[in-house]
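go over both lines:
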Amino acid sequence: MSASETSLPKRLLSGVAIAAIALVLAACSDEKKEAASKAPAETSASADATTTASTTATPAASQAKPAGTEVAQASAPSAKAELPQSEGSVDVQKLMEPGALPEMALGEANAPVTIVEYMSMTCPHCANFHNKTFDAIKAKYVDSGKVRFIVREFPFDPRAAAAFMLARCAPEGQYFPMISMLFKQQEQWAAAENGRDALLQMSKLAGFTQESFEACLTNQKLLDDVNAVMQRGAKEFGVKSTPTFFVNGEHYSGDMSVDVLSALIDSKL
């Protein structure tokens, strides 16, 4: 391995990256506050990491109720999640043009709704979305052919870039499982003192060896392509924070609960 090759993983996984991560966490938090002011329903569902993704019904009181009360309650319409505020729209044809890397997508190519998510692996709001919302949306809409879901890289810091590179280097068909694992274990590696060792241990769980790990993180072209995806998102589509979603070309920023994203998808069907 040449000196330049050795320096790349060190730059990607240096302890100095912790400061960069602190900056992106602050950026994510500022974006989240702005999104919360626009979509109160979203805030109540996802701002706290311990809050469940959907609202649980309150048990009925055991004491007797006046006659007709049950009928009135049964006929009352259920509350619907408030739709998030769109921040504008982009040209869908341009949005779907090929980029520097092959598209990572789930769902039917001709699905009536296409969601493009720009995310960063070290962003806690992205982790919250993928840990609490994504699987339910996949089961309800992607697997049923109603939604095509596309993930695009938008790393704010070196460790996020390294994590994306490892997901791209995973065996065929393992990109999304790798992303899921890294988000579930985000606290274990994103702010670890030794980011390299932490990511190496995560990667070994996905089948990487020491050699394949090093080969992936010294792939300069892959790093350049990951950054190119991010730069295109920023320059051409106005992505400034993560997660950012484009739903049939409509721009939405911030984490979304299952209820909110379901309501948004339903409005497009």
In short: The two ends are 53 Å apart (CA to CA). The mean pLDDT is 80. Residues 30 and 241 are 9 Å apart (CA to CA). DSSP finds 14 helices and five strands in the chain.
